[in-house]
Each structure stands twice: as C-alpha cells, then as structure tokens.
C-alpha cells in the first residue's frame, strides 16, 4: 500500500469514528428546559421583570430558610402580605422530573424535603399584592 491510500484510509476511519461518537452522544443526551413552554415564557419576560421588581420591595420580601438536620424548607412573609396565599415552585436545572410545586393560602409554607435529592435548587415564589403581580427567585442548596 502506498502513502496516498494510507492517508485516505486514516481519514475515512477518523470520519467514521467521529460520526459514531456524535450519533452516540445525540441519542443519549438528555436536554431539560427550565420550563416546558420556554418561548411563551420569553414573550412574558417584561411582566416577569416587573413582578420581580415588585417582589424585591422590602416590605414584601419573603424569608426563606432550610434546616439541613430536619431537611425542612420554610418560606414565610411578613404580616403585610394579605392572606391570599402564594405559590412556590422548586426546580432543578439538571432534571425537570424532580420539580416541586406548592400552593398555600396563608403567608407561610413549611415543606419536608426528605424525598428531594440534595443539590442546587431554584425557588420561585409568585403572589399578588395591592393588585400587582409580585415574584421572588433565589438559589438554595439542599
């Protein structure tokens, strides 16, 4: 075999190897979006930013704590929040199947996180105060 055939053979084998690797990676890749309807959420981006700005006002800001010993997550608002409740969405960027959603009618939420895997979580709170939507978002580690 001469040099030309050897170089062509090496290039063909390299391309076949790379095509096989790409095929394997694409078949086994798991892509989770943070939300299922990502594009619709992007359209409402301005409303979300206004809600986050409203939620950061000092007298509306929630308190969030996690106790690692009891694995209990506590979220509460000051008495200025009317007793109309709020929603709490806990989600993980790594696996959307582990997302948790809670709705409460009061100004306090206590949740046992014993069944939730340890790691980085994003907590998003939504509520209405004075007729305006408000939101708060933060990262927590369990």
Major sheet: order of its strands?
4-3-6-7
Encode the helix/strand succession as letters.
HHHEEEEEEE
Tell me the distance between the termini: 62 Å
Structural category? alpha+beta
Give the number of DSSP strands.
7
CATH domain class? Mainly Beta
Beta-strand percent range: 25-35%
Question: Would you kindly provide a written description of the structure presented here, covering whatever features stand out?
Answer:
This protein has about 140 residues and is α+β, with helices and mostly antiparallel strands. The chain has one domain: Immunoglobulins (Immunoglobulin-like, Sandwich). The protein is about 30% helix and about 30% strand. It has helices spanning about 5-30, 40-45, 45-55; strands spanning about 65, 70-75, 85-90, 100-105, 110, 120-130, 130-140. It has a four-stranded antiparallel beta sheet with strand order 4-3-6-7. A three-stranded antiparallel beta sheet has the order 1-2-5, with no helix packed on it. The longest helix has 26 residues, at about 5-30.
How do the helices and strands line up, and which of them pair or pack?
Elements: H1 3-28, H2 38-43, H3 45-55, E1 63-67, E2 72-76, E3 86-91, E4 100-104, E5 108-112, E6 120-129, E7 132-141
Antiparallel strand pairs: 1-2, 2-5, 3-4, 3-6, 6-7
Briefly summarize what is shown.
The protein is α+β, with helices and mostly antiparallel strands. The chain has helices spanning 3-28, 38-43, 45-55, and strands spanning 63-67, 72-76, 86-91, 100-104, 108-112, 120-129, 132-141.
């Amino acid at each position: 075999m001469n040099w030309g055939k050897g170089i062509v053979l090496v290039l063909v084998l390299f391309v076949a190897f790379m095509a096989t690797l790409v095929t394997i990676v694409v078949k086994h890749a798991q892509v989770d979006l943070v939300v299922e309807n990502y594009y619709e959420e992007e359209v409402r981006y301005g409303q979300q930013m206004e809600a986050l700005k409203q939620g950061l006002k000092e007298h509306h800001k929630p308190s969030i704590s996690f106790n690692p010993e009891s694995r209990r997550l506590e979220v509460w608002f000051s008495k200025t929040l009317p007793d109309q409740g709020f929603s709490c969405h806990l989600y993980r960027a790594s696996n959307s199947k582990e997302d948790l959603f809670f709705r409460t009618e009061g100004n306090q939420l206590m949740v046992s996180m014993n069944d939730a895997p340890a790691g980085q979580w994003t907590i998003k709170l939504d509520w209405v105060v004075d007729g305006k939507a408000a939101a708060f978002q933060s990262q927590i580690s369990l």
